[in-house]
Amino acid sequence: MHSLKSKFILIAVTLVLVPLLITNLFQYVIVTREYASTIEEKNQAVASSIASSVSFYIDGAFDVVSEIADEPAVTSFDRQVQRSILERAVQRNPEFDLLYIQGNDGMQTARSEGVVANRKDRWWFKQLQASQTSFVSKSYYSLFTKQPITSIFVPIADGKGTIIGSIGADIQMNELQEVVERNSFGKGSYSFIIDGEGVIVAHPNKQYVQEMYNLKQLTKTVWLKGKNGQELTDEQGNELTEEQSIDLSPELSILAKRALKGETGTGSYADSSKERFVAAFKPVKLPGSSERWAVISVQDEQKAYAFVYDIQKKVLWLSLVLAVSASLAIWFSSSLLIHPILGLVRFMEKAAHGDLTHRSQYKSKDEIGQLTASYNEMMDRIGSSLKDIKAAFSRVFSASNVLAETTQETSQSVTEVANSIIEVAESADEQSKMMQDGVQVTEELRAVLRQACDGLKMACSAAEETVASYEESAAAVQSFMEQQVLRRDADDEAADALGSISRKASLVHHRMKEFTDLAHDAAQAALGEEAADTALRRVAAHALHASRGMQGLVEEMNDELNELQRRMLAASAEASEHAEAANMRSNFEQLAAGLEPIRSQMISASVKLGQAGDKCGQLSAMIAGIATVSHRASDTAKSISAETQQQAAAMDEISHLSDSLNNSATLVAERIRSFRI
Known about the structure:
Blueprint lengths: L3 H67 L1 H4 L3 H14 L3 E8 L4 E4 L11 H9 L3 E2 L3 E2 L6 E10 L5 E9 L2 H9 L6 E6 L5 E3 L3 H5 L2 E2 L4 E5 L17 E5 L4 H11 L4 E6 L5 E9 L8 E8 H4 L1 H47 L14 H117 L1 H43 L4 H44 L6 H92 L4
Antiparallel strand pairs: 1-2, 1-6, 3-5, 4-5, 5-6, 7-8, 7-14, 9-10, 10-11, 12-13, 13-14
């Protein structure tokens, strides 16, 4: 029931069958109701017709009896005349079975037939005497005919209106029985008449009449019979009867009671075999003080509605044929209508599995044709879109591969940058350590230079003292020189030597001061924020140059002091030869002695300057190492810069690839948005 064809057939059959069933049901209800009304009207008409016949029959008989009771011959109570009148009346009115006249004592005076008798003990005589009015009796057994009868009783009055007797007429029920039988149509449709007590007086089933079925009491009255089959009577001649229950419908009894109350209507009941009957009842008003009679017309419901049932059966068969025909037509139509749709369903299922090559060949201008055309157009657009999507995603895939490779290269570059940064950090650590060592060497060099400077200061002081002593001796020598011209040249040379020594000592002192300042600058540069490489190189070059210059000066001063000491000793030897030169000798000896500590200081200064030169060499080596480390750091920084540029270029390429991917994604999104989902 999940297929469209099944649903379509179900809906179409429902649309056909439901109205058909509703129409049949409505028709059945309406027709049944209308036909029920017709049946009721028919039964009511039959009942009314029979009631009219009964009323006409009884009224006619009653009028005849009343006319007889009013005749003067009857009121004279001449028996022969009365008998003659009664016989002629029976002959003229065959509805009478027996006519009889009796006095107020109950003794019959005349009969149309039979022997007169006393009827004072009969129920009807007692009622007549009590009521003094005419009436039609209930059903009772006739002693004359031994059959249930109904009688008309009319009082006889004289000219003064005094009741002097009564006349009775036993009515033959044959006429009423014929009327009932004429309006009966078999077992299922009949009518019957009941008297004022509910006793059936005419019925197609004569047993009901013979046994006096009472619908009010649901009993029957049976005349008892003797062993010889003769009906039994009591001492007064009245029949001996017995009341027996009967199996009739209580619903029918209710209808009978309603009719005897004067109601006219219809109803239904079920008999002992559960068969349903429809009934119509009509009361019959009788003359005098008589109780109402009633006519009930009944009809077997099944037979009454046989025409409706037959029509309905035919309609049902016709509806069934129409339903089957409509179902076949619907099935055939649905096959024609659903076939292209089922084709589209199969194509859609194949499309759902990725096969977009199928197209519907159904051509029509109806909605299904429009659907197939839309399907074909949709498949074409989907195919085109998928091609565009495939191309776009191919570009995306290529861009993704390039992006992956670029990302891998970027990762490698980042790794190399990280390694370079580690190397730069290690070089920086090494450079920092070497800078600390350079600072330490600079401090040591500064201390050595200070010691050398102090020694040179002492040497300069000693030289100055020696110069002063020499000037004092020069004055003494001057006179001596004047006397001895031969010594003059030597003295001049000595004086020149001392002057040269003094000048060189001053120059050494000046160089030592510069060297000390340079060492201080080197220490500050090593500890400050100035570029260590350039500063240390400059300080080391100046320090090495100054150290070498001072060492050369000290060596020259040492050589000159040795020469001067030699000359002083020679001068002292010559001065010892002359008395006048005694003082000069002493002076020269003092000069020679004074030159000794200068010489020692010079030697010490030379040693110190040598040590300073070694320190300068160490400092130069350290600075060279720092320069090497700096170059390496610079090269590493350049490498990092280059790799960073490569990484930036890679990132630019990634950005371009991202733009390409974005454009492709936008194209795919636009293609997807072109469909209504």
